[in-house]
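Lecture 7 notes: from sequence to structure.
We start with the chain below.
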Amino acid sequence: MKDVKWLLKKYGFFIVLMVIIVIDSRERTEIVSDGGAKEDMTEESAETDRAEKGYDLPVSDSERKEAEDDCKKMMGLISELYKNAEKGCASNVVISDEIMYQMAGKLKSAGCPVTITAAYSNMENDKELEDFLNDSIAGNSGSAVVYEIHSDGGIERYKYSYDGKDMYVLSAKATWSDDDKSVITYISYTRIKEWKFTDKGWFCYELCVPEYPEVTEIVDGSCMVRVKSITEENREMSEKCVLGLAYQGNNLLCSNWDADHMESLDYNGMYEYLYAMKYQEKFPSEDYLDGIPKDEFENLIMEYLPITAEEIQGYAVFDEEKQTYVWVRLGCFNYAPTHFGTSLPEVTDIRENKDGTVTLTVDAVCSMILCDDAVITHELTVQFAEDGSFQYLGNKILDDGISNIPEYQYRIIRK
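Predicted structure tokens for the same chain:
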């Protein structure tokens, strides 16, 4: 026994190495003698692995042909609209919302649900998708096809299917070539990890995507589709009063304030958004590298808020020597990106008050990661004038929603 221990101690490494070589030789012999079987096992293993992960699932020939044929057919219906549309520069084609709505009208005739990527757009033929989702909630298998028109003039076809247990989506994207021919750019088949159909009419779902350690960065598989229509009045109020502000770079909609408590608003941050709302053009930042002249800044702020010039000087970052208000571009040094910042403000209710003001109930709809149709709900009070102009009078975040969002980061640190 001592001799055996001594041998193992002295030659153990070589013994283990010989055992590994023998095992490896047997495996190699097995592979050589039965190569076909091993290859089949590898393919089966890979397919099983894909099925478990839920993405890059195989697409059958029939499903692929159906997707391609449908996309080509739909692209044919909108081809004339695309050819005649203003498209911007050749390297970055962008068509107007109006053209996208016209395209949706063409696809509507095919009977399938169709939507566009513009904010607050309603889905045509939405009942088919709504019925499918309600049937899926009840545990009934089925499928529904939805078309989405993109700002580049292309379309994406989504075929949602439910087998009584899991929901899947087969996505196909069609775009236009340089000579205005339709081209299928990709087809993918993915399992939906989880989904819900909210009371407010949103179909929210999260796709199966690569995760750590397969990838080192987070892949966002969250998606939101508006199924139930927004009213025309709510859409108009959304576009007029809240879309231009949203929740990034200013805190007018994501803080509690009123006419008597306006010191916490980020005036230096909100200026560029109010400028874009008033003049319907992007703020020309290159013209204000040395700051925004006092009168320009104060007059615009006072147009939208019930505040005096003296109060603005006390609350905002003001350079008394130059008589300008400091402005800096939003960037990595003064803004940490958040999912909440990408939320879309959507007016869900309009209440006229006895004093002539109007209170808008607004949901912050976030499609990224959170996939939430109301990260916060807030009440925004506004005063409209006869000429259609208006002032913001106050904002109140309901149900302690302020604790659910990141602390606001001011554009410029006030001293």
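Points to note: The longest strand covers residues 182-197. Residues 263 and 315 are 6 Å apart (CA to CA).
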